[in-house]
Amino acid sequence: MSTNALAPTRRIALGLEYDGAAFRGWQSQPGGVGVQDALESALSTIGDGKIQVSCAGRTDAGVHATVQVIHFDTAAKRPDTAWVRGVNALLPDGVAVRWARVVPGDFHARFSAWGRHYRYLLINRPVRPALARGRAGWYHGPLDAEVMDQACAYLLGKHDFTAFRASECQAKSPIKILRQARVQRHGDWLIFDFWASAFLHHMVRNLVGSLVYVGNGKHPPAWIGEVLAARDRSLAAPTFAAAGLYLVGVDYEDRWGLPPTVAGELPDLFPGVCL
């Protein structure tokens, strides 16, 4: 029997980033192709025993994260550097641990979080991107960012987001509090920012798709509010591509003692483009 099995456990929180194009989403998958599979395998090796993790928010296939937070329990006594550099040495190139902290036993990466931040990067130009392939969405026709930003006002507050919810969503309630919805243009780039208590399955990608319908003139800004009020998924636009979506932050109370868990600007994703 491993001596770890007899030792008291500690709860460890990790902050990590990953390129979603390299995985079939966060959640463990048959064949071990989820981010969770890669992380648990590396942690179990460093911890000399099976380790299972819980995350702040499960991301779909093709969706990226600059700030994902997880926690796990282990009896292994390791320095923080082992949970960072040691684990990174065993992870595939598309995922990396950025920091590790010992946290109180009642901390939970998901249930202790009171907000999540998502950003969608969309290239808006006639020709498809090459360098940003898999890292940004693309729309070929002209889009009016100001009108799209106006439409965002109809989404703010506490609402039933059934109209922007995937049919396979397992959330107990479609009611969420959206604290921020914003669209900004930077040259050929459109930057969508969303901040909510939590998000439904495909919610951000469905919101982006409908905002594009406003931006291309298919519908006026008020249409977003009408779709929201109707609570009918069939009235909204199709789900937009996963490639441009990033989990960029998770909100926690200061008492947990975590490093910053909300990203600022993202200047390093694409050289020469300040996002």
What topology emerges from the helices and strands here?
Blueprint: E1 10-18, H1 35-47, E2 54-55, E3 64-74, H2 80-88, E4 95-103, E5 115-124, E6 137-139, H3 145-152, E7 157-160, E8 175-186, E9 189-196, H4 203-215, H5 222-230, E10 245-251
Parallel strand pairs: 3-10, 5-6
Antiparallel strand pairs: 1-3, 1-4, 2-3, 5-9, 5-10, 7-8, 8-9
Helix pairs in contact: 1-2, 3-4
Q: Which descriptors apply to this entry?
A:
275 residues; alpha+beta; 5 helices; 10 strands; globular; disordered C terminus
Structure, explained:
Helix 3 crosses helix 4. This protein is 19% helix and 27% strand. It contains five helices and ten strands, in the order E-H-E-E-H-E-E-E-H-E-E-E-H-H-E. Strands 1, 2, 3, 4, 5, 6, 7, 8, 9 and 10 form a ten-stranded mixed β-sheet that branches. Residues 271-275 have low confidence and may be disordered. It is globular, with a radius of gyration of 20 Å. The chain is an alpha+beta fold.
Q: What is the CA-atom radius of gyration, in angstroms?
A: 20 Å
Q: What is the CA–CA distance across the termini? A: 51 Å
Return residue spans where pLDDT drops below 50 for at least 5 consecutive residues.
271-275
Helix content: 10-25%
Number of DSSP E strands: 10
Largest sheet: number of strands, sense, barrel closure: 10 strands, mixed
- The chain-level structural class is alpha+beta
Shape: globular
Strand content: 25-35%
How do the SSEs run, as a string of H and E? EHEEHEEEHEEEHHE
The total of helices stands at: 5
- Arithmetic mean pLDDT: 92
Domain Pseudouridine synthase I TruA alpha/beta: 17-111, 151-253
Active site: 60 (nucleophile)
Family: Belongs to the tRNA pseudouridine synthase TruA family.
Catalytic activity: uridine(38/39/40) in tRNA = pseudouridine(38/39/40) in tRNA
